[in-house]
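quick one, 81 residues, struct below
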Amino acid sequence: MWDTISQAAIFVLGTLAIILVAKKNKWGFVAGLLSQPFWFITSFVNQQWGVIFVSIVFTLSWSYGIYEWFFKSKKKTRRSK
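---
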């Protein structure tokens, strides 16, 4: 049961994440991060240890995107005249 739910969540959230990031929408990083627990569940249930490693890397990448888009302070630039 968990594997089926995880597969559906991966499809929906993963697709949404890629589309939003491609459109330069910061919420794509949130959708991507929300998909990660389902990747971990699926890879653990199916004993796909390489996918667990990749999921760790993706989790860090999505988290970095959230930091960049939501929390990083933007540097003020001066306009040259």
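The CA atoms of residues 39 and 80 lie 48 Å apart.
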